[in-house]
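Checked the freezer inventory, then went back to the computational side. Two predictions to log before the end of the day. The first one is the construct we discussed on Monday; recording sequence and tokens without edits.
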Amino acid sequence: MVFRAKRRNSKSGRKKLLSVKVQSQQAKRERLRWLRSLSALAAAIAGIIAVCWQGGAFALNRLVYENESFSVRQLDYRTDGIISVGQLKQWGGVSSGDNLLKLDLLRIKRDIELAPRVRAASVERFLPDTLQVRVAERVPMAQVWAWQRDGAGVTDYDCVRVQLDETGHVMSPIDGYSVVAPEKQAEWSLPVVSGIELKKLKSLSPGRPAGLPKLQAALGLIGEFRRSALAGVVDLRVIDLSQPRILRVTTGNGGQVDLSTDRLARQLNRWARIRAHGQKFGLAIETVDLSVTNNVPVRWMLSPTIAEDIKNGRNLAGK
């Protein structure tokens, strides 16, 4: 009886093992079937996306980027300064017939703003065929003249002339034109900053700000001068930086004025009062040192109008 019971138990155990193996194989087949279905679905989706992408790109090219209706026909360039429209078009690199929607506006803006004379630029497209570019230019306040070696020989020198705006940004001059401000002032009549060492000329390369503190002080002087009572009545010709802690100004009538680099507005007010005092007696400033706070030394000369009248009087008397 025991032997029969063992045989029945062994048979039932084998049946259970076979049943478990069958179930695991069925589960594996089910998982494989699902994986094949998912792979087929993913491949189908990828194919649909690729077809749509290619079709969309083809349609976009045909309907937009190659559509002559969106060709550039109007190039509207405007500036608040003196740069020619032809120069702006050359910097922008856009030609009539280019596709308006295909243009890289950020690239055009960047290329125009790389010019040292340009302070800022804006670029916009107006459908169907207009590109609009607006440019704000830097306004030169001073010019720097210096001699430096041209590299061709030991004794060969070139005259370097650059201009600076109120922030000290260096740019090349545009000859033969008037600047934006002050009105009707030729670029050649801008105040000249002198006394800069040759070794510091590298910091005066167009397209970068000048990193010279004393030069910044000279630009500050020009700005304060234009806001003072002297503007329009005194011609500011040269600002010499060769003296330590002193800005030496030469005026249009040959006068020399020394100013310290700080408290410029106060010194300019004192200059205006001294000038007005001398005018009462027909005198003009020959030299004055405004860098001192007390007992300002002044040397006088006849004002140009009085000197001219005396000269004309002598000429008439001689005749």
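The second is the one RB wanted added to the comparison set:
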Amino acid sequence: MVRTVLTFTDRGIYCPAGDFHIDPWRPVPRALITHGHSDHARPGMGEYLATHQALPVIRHRLGSIHAKGIGYGEPRQIGGAVVSFHPAGHVPGSAQIRVEVAGEVWVVSGDYKTEGDGLAEAFEPVTCHTFISECTFGLPVFHWEPQPLVMTRIADWWQANATAGKVSILGAYSFGKAQRLLSGLPEVGPILTHGAVEEMTEILRGQGYRLPSTTRATPDITSKTHPGALIIAPPSALGSSWANRLGPAEEAFVSGWMALRGIRRRRALGTGFVLSDHADWAGLNAAIKTTGAERVFVTHGYTAIFRNWLQTQGYDAGIVETRFTGDDADDTDEVVG
């Protein structure tokens, strides 16, 4: 008989044995948080529990909260449940949450990617009976190229713009993707950051994550003061008055969604680079297989298609309706200096 360790409620994923929720989207007394993106870490909870690495970003975004940290792999008894947090590879500090009740183990993936990026803690497979997996990119069309190849393409684009006397503005989400680019790009010229990106970068740098020196793009900075520069900014800054003040520039957007030409056209972007902080089709399938789970619930993404595929592969698969938004949806930063 399969024990129901977690249930699905209008407030989020709930553990009756421990009386806690995981990444709830409505206020609850106790919340276990997988990572600091705003669709998973929301305000209004009585207590928060997240990895030590995730907490600084969560505190920065949510303000004064009652929160505690936990180490990766550290078991903690909460009521009748034993929980532990394990690296998800999504962004720095991100975790999958393992919940065990009376020998039955369920794992909530949060958001994850299986390719190491040199910055976030690398994804760690966790054996379980039931796996709750995101499937943001749960279609075979989504196949990521290796990170070094994508970084080289971005650097070549940057170099070509610098040669043409233009700065390069790269749209990337302020927490996670922006720092991944900073960590992985070769040095072509000066690197500037939008204020929202710089704030997150300073937080991570203060935690010991290795990130290169950057300069905040203040109003007095233009293509004349910093010729050939790369400016990393939230996607909301692309095409804005903030971007226009920089002078002659080329813009591009970095996202897994750039694999779909229709989305690139709708954003009116001539250049898009495919780089995601989520697993692609192959990564999703590989991750699920390594868990050894017999039952899989999928959430946020191509849920019906991916659920049906998993059923053909012999899994007992279902869909969980959540309010998570998937890849790079954390574009909540205001376009300010």
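For RB: The chain has two domains: 7-141+277-319, 147-273. Residues 147-273 form a domain with the Rossmann fold fold (CATH 3.40.50.10710). Let me know if you want it refolded.
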